[in-house]
Amino acid sequence: MTASSRPALVEGLKPLAENYDLILCDVWGVLHNGVKAYEAAGDALTRFREKGGRVVLVSNAPRPGSSVGTQLDGFKVPRTAYDAIVTSGDLTRLAIEERIDKVVNHIGPPRDMPIYNGLDVRFGSIEEADYVVCSGFDDDERETVENYRERLEAMRRRDLLMVCANPDLIVERGHMILPCAGTIALAYEEMGGKVFYAGKPHVPVYEKALAVAAELVGHTIPKERVLAVGDAIRTDIAGAVGFGIDALMIARGIHAEELGLHKGDLVSDHVQDWVDRQPVTPTAIADVLSWEA
Q1: CB 95 within 8 A of CB 198
Q2: Residues 125-136: tens digit of each pLDDT
Q3: What one-character-per-residue DSSP string does 70-93 give?
Q4: Which of 11, 21, 40, 201 is buried most, with the most CB atoms less than 10 Å from its CB?
Q5: By percentage, how much of the chain surpasses pLDDT 70?
Q6: What are the distances in angstroms from CA 216 to CA 56, 229, 236, 258?
Q7: How far apart are CA 118 and CA 129, in angstroms?
Q8: Which residues lie closer than 8 Å to 94 by C-beta, 6 or more apart?
């Protein structure tokens, strides 16, 4: 990659805003860290909307968008920051509806059970199930994939499809980095298992987000007028690049420690050096999501 083709280092959303009509914004790592909200991020999206732009939050949360909205209210993320929410949980529900006459086995904690709300679902053991929905670890602070190895082997023997409700491998919660459902799904894939990924970086969640945006404005928004914002190179940035839209990477997110960004440090050339080594390249990089420095 030449210096001229490197992603721009920007100090906020403001210098980019006029180039886009729609922002597809990640939630965890951009708007909050699982413990507290980032006020500047909510303000930046609110200002973008005040100038006529639209914002659809696109999250790999294994819960319906309505549940994520309630969580954001708890973090005091303003409703003025977004128009709609699309989650991997929403797409998982569609996958469940398509198999409503089938028996499902669930892997994941009780907090993710709203994914089944209003659906006439039959649950069963691995031996009884027609497919499996994986939303995460029962105890993500203590468990590893090895805790699920026997269950995955039993699934593989029966050649069961896994619907992964959260393709993320890891997530930041406060100062902890915790494993997500994507870690279990990846292990199952490596065993030869079949996996349907409901969220980023896969195309269906982006198609759904653009369809929701089109309903909001009454017409299709061209991809060249769409900006994805996220902190994870594997999901947010790779997904945007694969879908053919621009991407703003937030450096002080899931990769902050890897990038050597300590409190008070600013994004600099070494972040671009790190990006050079990645399989995909964002359009621009910002320290955090804000309107301006």
Answers
A1: yes
A2: 999 999 999 999
A3: HHHHHTT--GGG-SEEEEHHHHHH
A4: 201
A5: 96
A6: 10, 20, 23, 38
A7: 20
A8: none
What tens digit of pLDDT does each residue of 271-292 get?
A: 888 899 999 999 999 999 999 9
CA distance to 110, 113, 158, 215, 239, per residue, from 136 (Å)? 10, 11, 21, 31, 21
Is pLDDT of 254 > 90? Answer: no
pLDDT above 90 (res 270):
no
* Residue 270 · residue 11 · CB < 8 Å: no
User: Among 185, 129, 197, which residue's Cα sits nearest to residue 157?
Assistant: 129
Which class for 250: exposed (0-12), middle (13-18), buried (19 or more C-beta within 10 A)? buried
The answer to whether residue 43 scores a pLDDT higher than 80 is yes
pLDDT of 138 higher than 80: yes
Residue 166: exposure state from Cβ atoms within 10 A (0-12, 13-18, ≥19)? buried
Which domains, from first to last, does the chain contain? 3-89+201-286 (3.40.50.1000), 91-197 (3.40.50.1000)
Task: Give DSSP secondary structure letters for the chain.
Answer: --GGGSPEEESSSHHHHTT-SEEEE--BTTTB-SSSB-HHHHHHHHHHHHTT-EEEEEE--SS-HHHHHHHHHHTT--GGG-SEEEEHHHHHHHHHHHTTTSEEEEES-GGGGGGGTT---EE--TTT-SEEEE---SSTTT--GGGGHHHHHHHHHTT-EEEES---SEEEETTEEEE-HHHHHHHHHHTT-EEEE-STTSHHHHHHHHHHHHHHHTSPPPGGGEEEEES-IIIIIHHHHHHT-EEEEESSSTTTTTTT--TT----HHHHHHHHTSSS--SEEESS--S--
